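S.,

Sequence below, as promised.
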Amino acid sequence: MKAEWCSQHGDAIRLSVQVLPNAKNTEVVGLLDGALKIRLKAQPIEGQANEELIRFIATQIKVPKKQISVVRGITSRLKVVEIKAQREIEEISRLLLPL
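The prediction came back faster than expected:
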């Protein structure tokens, strides 16, 4: 199963993510226009939303936060997140977007 929002880039995996800050809870909402849509229980000020996004993804896929970074869209709602961990795309897809 190949997800358009999740792709291999060298030794890393990149995720296209659309975030919705100031939500009641941090959770995956689903897919929207080729991106994983995630509600964040954090404000989009001083990097709080990016920190919450990294924390949430790290918790869901069970990797240290230092292996995850926002590589594009630091101040945007549409972001590219890079994961440098020994994980398969299918496993990350299943952990973040269970069917």
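The chain has one domain: 6-88.

Coffee later?
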